[in-house]
Amino acid sequence: MKVLVISDVVNRLLYSPYLKELAGKAEIIVSCGDLPVYYLDYLVSNLGKPLLYVCGNHDSYGKTRHSAYHSGKNSVFSEMGLGDKEPSFGGRNLDGRTDVVKNLIFGGLEGSILYNYGDHQYTETQMRLKILGMAPSLMRNKILKGRFIDVLVTHAPPRGIHDKDDRAHMGFEAFLSFIKVFRPAYLIHGHTHLYDMNEKRKLEYLGTKVINCYDYQILDIEAG
Are 83 and 56 in contact (CB under 8 A)? Predict the structure, then answer.
């Protein structure tokens, strides 16, 4: 499956008539957070594909409903098996949940490490509790699909992988534990901006491909 992953910055080429030329083959859009509603709305409206998202530490839309799009029997969400869920601006909030799209198992954990008590910020203990809350759905996936999860979508990176030394951009130790236990094929994140294009976007940890999707990436991901 081709997946358009976006995070942290509005790309002027995607937010333009060039969108379909660049990303028209994507079957799903995934947002790793810190993006404005108008940008997400534009991508969903023009590509006509489902959107899965987690909130970043600068987002506020995770707290309110937006009625620009609604699920139903004729929506793109029903076509992807998500018609019974409540989307927001055409999107499904993945935080603390898993969703199966075309046999690909996505799960999400929003936000960043706690640094100034803003929205969508968590201590390590709080993040571990969020992961614990996901455990029933992950176990159900293991029973039904033979694996816990394919793609973990986060805003912040794991500690020591793509993160920074300043408090606001530190990664979560809890994500390293998640990888050790649930073995996702991918962990995709944003939060740490890439200003040096020679900086590595992709690293591997215990078999999990960890990808910094700052700006945007188009990934080919296979179930399992």
Answer: no
pLDDT (tens digit per residue) in 109-133: 999 999 998 899 999 999 999 999 9
Residue 169: closest CA among 115, 222, 219, 205:
115
Cβ atoms of 7 and 191 within 8 Å: the answer is yes
Which tens digit of pLDDT belongs to each residue from 155-186? 999 999 999 889 989 999 999 999 999 999 99
Q: What predicted TM-score, i.e. pTM, was given to this entire model? A: 0.87
Q: Give the architecture (CATH level 2) of 2-220.
A: 4-Layer Sandwich (3.60)
Q: Contact, 19 vs 43, CB < 8 A? A: yes
Rounded CA-CA distance 106/123 in Å is 23
The two three-digit tokens of residue 28, written as one number? 């799903």
- Paired tokens of 33: 């957070």
